[in-house]
Every structure is written in structure tokens, then in C-alpha cells.
Hints:
Layout: E1 4-5, E2 8-9, H1 14-21, H2 25-44, H3 52-64, H4 69-88, H5 94-101, H6 119-126, H7 134-149, H8 153-157, E3 164-167, E4 170-177, E5 183-187, H9 190-202, H10 229-240, H11 257-270, H12 275-282, H13 287-294
Antiparallel strand pairs: 1-2, 3-4, 4-5
Helix pairs in contact: 1-2, 1-4, 2-4, 3-4, 4-5, 7-9, 7-11, 12-13
Protein name: Integrase
Keywords: DNA integration, DNA recombination, DNA-binding
InterPro entries: CB, DNA_brk_join_enz, Integrase-like_cat_sf, Integrase_catalytic, Integrase_recombinase_N, Integrase_SAM-like_N, Tyrosine_recombinase_XerCD
Amino acid sequence: MTLVSQTGPTDIDPIQLVLDSVTSPLTKVAYQKALGDFFTWWGGQGRPPLTKAVVQRYVAVLLEQGRSSSSVNVRLSAIRKLVREAADNGQLASFEAESIARVRGVKKQGRRTGAWLSRAQAQELLLAPDTSTLRGLRDRALLAVLLGCGLRRSELVNLTFTHLQQREGRWVVLDLIGKHGRTRTVPMPGWCKAAVDAWTSAAALSGGHLFRPTSPRGSRVLARQQLSHEAVALIVRKYGQQVGRADLTPEGLQLAPHDLRRTFAKLAHKGGAPIDQIQLSLGHASIQTTEVYLGVDQNLESAPCDVLGLSLKGH
């Protein structure tokens, strides 16, 4: 699969160029799927010269198929990365690459804030695993870290024993490398550390990755592996389906790992944690992103101006 440059065809795989240029495993998966779909469509069009008009037509087709704005924009990001890498490697004229890169994304209508759990639901989720089994101990520890530390799924699967350190009299996740390579330290509550210790002690683990897959029956640890992103999603979904069945639907809650990150933020905010400290724990570059997680609404009954402590009466 090649593009055509000013000097003719090359043997360089353009998709591989893109994958080699990004570091996030999730981005690699998303871009590989997006570019595979694009090349399939492009091939069905007879592979016309790759131009801005062709990409704009592809965007129109995606919208006609009912794709969401976020789905279309991810595909456009992958294509922009593709043409720029192709231009840098002589597979596409620079002016054409820049023209394609200027194709506008689809404007999002409204804002999806995702799901949060109430404190009662979060507590129910935390207690859902059967801790009489090795797998249940692992799953409780995994849910505890997602709820208690607000980590991203990618951060959780890459968590190692060296990340768990004591600082200023408490346990923390030290020097965690998150999105865009930003490094932060995340405080860990005592109940979360207790859940992690119960799992690692039962699994006889003392080094390497913290969360590992277990054998099909869950009776032993596959020590040389780390848990996959897909496995984390399945674990969260499994226990989410057990939560709230009495007052929701027979299927329970349809949860994703990121919903537990939002829950961490929401419960911390309701508990009185300052928003800037929540931002630091989550590793957000912008406090506006944290506000989206919190679903912050303006409170006119108890507004910030009411607690300033100022008056016209003096002392």
C-alpha cells in the first residue's frame, strides 16, 4: 500500500509511517483502523490522485453513513498525519499535503459529558468482585485504582510496582507518565492501597506490572504478561452490569473505564476537594477539561461571591 510522490511510487508503507510517528498504543490502534478504512474506500474509488477534494468527499461519505462528529474527526486526524508523514518522506507533494491538512473537522453539536456513578453506586461496584478468588482480588484492586486515583486505562495497564511509593507520610503513584508525556504524582487512598496489597500478596507479585491476566479459571497469574486495554474494559463492563439492577434495568450499568475516572472527579468535588487539586490528580493541562468531567453547573443559591467575606461595614 503506497502513495505516489512527485518522483513516482515508493515501497514505503504510509500507514506504518504514521504508526511509527505516534507513541500512544490507543492512538496507534485508532489510526491504523481509520487509515485502513480510508484506503479501502479510496481503492473502491479507483485510487484517484490524493487531493483535498478527495478527502472532503470521504468526509461527506462518512457523514452520510451517520458517523458521529468525533468519529469523523479521529479519521481526519489520522489522514492529516498520513499526508504530512508522506510529504516528509517524498511520497506526496508538500503543497498537496498542506492542502489536505486544511480540511476542516466536523463541528460538534453540544457536549457529551459521559457518565458518573453516585457514591452508593461506586461503593456497590467496588464491593462487586468475589474476593474469595484470585481473579476477584485483582478485579477489586483494579476498580479501586480507577475509582480511587482517577487513572486513565492506559495509565493503569502500564502501572508497575516502582510507581507505588510513600511520600510525605502517604502512598502515591509516583512519576506517572500520562497523556502527551506529562508526568504527575497521584495520591492513593489507604483503602485503595489495601486492595492492591491484598491482590499482590495473594498473587505473590513483588515487581513488574501491577495488573496481570489470570489463567482461564482465574486460579493463577500469567506473570510474564500485563493486562490489556481490552481486558480492563471488559472487567469494568462486567461489574457495571451487576450494579444498580434493583433500580435500573436488568442489564445494570453500561460502564467504561473512563466513567470511573469521571466518578473520581465528581465524588472528589462533592467531597470538597479544590478543583485545581482534582486537575493535578487527573493530569489535565486545562482546568476547563476538569470542569467538563465535573459537569460543573452555576449555583446561584450559593455562589462564589457569597463566601468572599467582604462587606461595606468595615471591621
